[in-house]
Each structure stands twice: as structure tokens, then as C-alpha cells.
Amino acid sequence: MPAPLARVTSRRARRLTVHVPVSEATLAALLGGDRTAMDRDPVLAAMLQIIRDEPALGDFRVYNGVAEIMLGWETFAPTFAAKPTLGKAGEIQHSATVTLTTWIRDTATDAMVEAAYLALVQAHPWEVPVIEVTETRLLLRPEV
């Protein structure tokens, strides 16, 4: 008799993505493989510390402080009403950016989640922080 097929299951999850400006030197160091550059960049280090410290974030149940780290650039053009941390109104800008993705613990209370959101927004230097929350599903290892 053949072994029973395992079924892949999933659970609902909330994914939180934060676009973090970093210096050109930080991005270059990271692209060169120097992971310690994350700790030397004050904004990136602060965001990672929030993910590690806030009990609502970094949820992978048996792992804590989980964050995916992607390197790249963003482009934008501030309007004359903006107070940009980089660039001038009407000029196209490019910002070295690290995108952090983490997950919100499914057992977190609303107060815990709000505290995590507030910590991220307060630590973010942009006039309009780019922080997204998306409903998703995480696939789980099948049990036989």
C-alpha cells in the first residue's frame, strides 16, 4: 500500500514591508558582501532593532526577528510642497534603499501591532515613510 500523500497547509499572515533609506556607502558595502554595514547605518540598524525588539514583529513562530533584506534604489521627484530628506523640488532623485520585509505575529494584540507601527514610523526619516502591510498566506511544511 503506498504511503499517504502529505498535504501542504497554510496560515493567514500579515506581511510588513519597510523601505529604508541608506547611504550610498552602506549600499555599496552591502552589495560587496559586507553584512556588518547594516549595523553601521543608523537608520537601517534602528529599523532592524525594532523588528527584533517589538513582540508583534518577526513572526515565524519558531523563529524570532525574521526579516528579508533586499537591496536597491528608489526614484522620486519631490513637489514644491515637500520637505524631502534628499533632493530638491522638481528634480528626479535616486535613493539608495534597503527593503525590509517581516511578518506580524498572528497572536499580537492590536496594541502590540500599533506600538510596532509607531516605533517604525517614528524611526523613519522620510516625510512620508513607505511602510506597507499586506494580507497573505504562509505555506507550512506538510505533516505526514
Task: List the main descriptive attributes of the protein structure presented here.
about 140 residues; alpha+beta; Alpha-Beta Plaits; four-stranded antiparallel sheet; N-reg_PII/ATP_PRibTrfase_C
Task: Describe this protein's structure.
The chain is of the alpha+beta class and 144 residues long. The protein has one domain: Alpha-Beta Plaits, CATH 3.30.70. It has helices at residues 24-31, 37-40, 42-53, 110-123; strands at 7-21, 68-76, 93-104, 131-143. It has a four-stranded antiparallel beta sheet with strand order 2-3-1-4. The two termini are 15 Å apart. 22% of the residues are buried. InterPro entries: N-reg_PII/ATP_PRibTrfase_C.
User: What is the annotated CATH architecture?
Assistant: 2-Layer Sandwich
Let me know the average pLDDT: 93
The N- and C-terminal alpha carbons lie at a distance of: 15 Å
Query: Nearest-angstrom radius of gyration?
Result: 18 Å
The name CATH uses for the topology is Alpha-Beta Plaits
Give the number of helices: 4
Tally of separate domains: 1
Q: Helices and strands, in N-to-C order?
A: EHHHEEHE
The major pleated sheet works out as:
4 strands, antiparallel
| Strand order, sheet with most strands | 2-3-1-4
How does the overall form come out from the CA principal axes?
A: elongated
Number of extended strands: 4
Structural class: alpha+beta
| Share of β-strand residues | 25-35%
InterPro entries: N-reg_PII/ATP_PRibTrfase_C (IPR015867)
